[in-house]
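Listing 4. Sequential folding, example run.
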Amino acid sequence: MSAVKPLEAVARDRVGKGAARAVRRQGQVPAVIYGGNQPPQAIAVDLIRTRTLIYAGGFLTTVFEISAGGRTVRAIPRDYQLDPVSGVPLHVDFLRVVAGQSVEVEVPVHFSNEDAAPGIKQNGGTLNVVHHTVTVSVAPESIPDAITVDLTGKNIGDTIHVSDLPVPAGATFALDGAEVVATLVPPTVLGAEVEAEEAAVAEAARAESAAEAAEETAEGESKEG
């Protein structure tokens, strides 16, 4: 489960594009906290802190304790915008966390023990991942950092479905249980074709070098004669 993280913020009195630009010029990111049957609250958060949190990963599955305007509220990021060129955060939306409610979050799917999967270790197969994340409905305090699938004993042709995933306590998956998360596939034919093509190119290069050497030898002998 992700730990609740503190986040300092400043309450904003003004909203709109002009106000947002002014906030960004001060090295902050405009944001809003909404939900929980309360009016939206406009805030600003530190740019460097926000950028670090976003690029560290897990930002959208982390509950924050936000202090702003003399009040502290628990909220989870629901969306953020980045500058398409620089990647700098431009805006963040936070959803208030209310006791007893569940939230839908995208949780990453990780895979462990690939060395213990005969299909990969002995037979040269590949893990073809269909879903790198799954949508989970869960209480905010129970959001997992990731869902880990054990590949021990998996062989080529085996399929991992949503129903095979370990379910976090009190959580449900938005995807149907029959949905495919990953499969173990045999070595690709394309890989063999590439290797054969590279070998053919190398052989042609060797033959060309040998022909050039033979020509140079013949020319030398002709001059001597």
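-- end of first protein; second protein begins --
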Amino acid sequence: MARRAPRYAEAERNDRALLEAARKVLAVDGAHTSVAAIAARAGVGIASLYRRYRTKEELFQHLCALSLGQWIQAAEEGLAHDDAWEGLVHYVTAAIEFSAGALGPLAGTIEVTDEMAEKFTRSDELTKALVERAHEAGVLRADATTVDISLLVEQLGKSSLAEQFEARGRTDLAEAASNARHRVIAIALDGLRPGRDPLPGTPPGPGLLAERW
């Protein structure tokens, strides 16, 4: 067991690095992203990666499951807040910060595993609980749905200005870009408050996000 512990810790570190790298590379290359590009970005050897994951699809399935796990953790932390609004804000902000929507380009290109389906269901249940609690507390506009919140997180969680500057080596603008992102998140959250003009169109159906997969 003692011998396996360091290997397990290394595997976890590699997973985190691969997930972060996949999010950044997918934001640029989309579904055509190569495993080699992700491995290079993460600093992980392509040979060692393929010793652990037999195929590109298996790697992407694992990364999707990891990402869904982060959605779940953010939602659970949000529900742990006594204040319904602050709990929702925590969830939305945390999910955007770890770029929750960056793996969206993989939708429909890989088979959904049982683990992915189970975690998606759990994540959806927790998000619904956050939204229902906020509605009951009167702190969330009545016409904002769970799908609206998830789409908001996904859209704001895509390639950020800070990441774009980072890719160009403009670290001098990192702080300004991060500040700008926080302002945009705050503007979006303010739009979820009650008392605003009605949202346009009809509420998106509950299967809209899942149908992509």
